[in-house]
Amino acid sequence: MSLHTVDTPPLVLPIETLQLAFNGATEALKADFILESKQLGTINGQLNYQDQQLNAQLLTRQLDLQPLEGLFPDVSLLTGQLSTDLKLHFEADALTLTGDTVINNLAVNSRALPFDFTDGGITLRFSGNQFSVDSTIKLGQGNASITGNGQWAGTDWNADLLMTASEVRIEPLAKSYALLSS
User: Fold this and answer.
1) What pLDDT, on the 0 to 100 scale, is given for residue 112?
2) Among 7, 34, 39, 106, which is 20 to 30 Å from 70 by CA?
């Protein structure tokens, strides 16, 4: 399988197994899939659309992020493992999510960021139209943690996040500029 984006060369990922079960009619759709890759890991999913309601589930266990590095042109290093168990329900412009998404051993080096993540973890927990975040990451010589929660209704959302850090040095970006006017 290959993925193409506008600013990057095609990313070729060997997929050893792809199972897709599909059943559709005018008013209903049901699909189940399993994607297995020795480089990435396994992704399982389900999709069910009926009576103008969409239900979906996505399940990954220790999905390796490194093979996806090529999708991001400014990223020179991307490592980590993604585990997710999410259920989605969408009806009448209302979206609800239930479950967890966890990224462990995250490292990111990018020209687009003023600092590099050298080790970290992020946990997102979803419950209906609310979420919480808890993360600890190593930034350069220091550490940072981000905690908080938020909620959404339709297209309106808000979040309260707290970042605490020690010994974080932020480098100016090469593309940075200031525009002053009076």
Assistant:
1) 81
2) 34
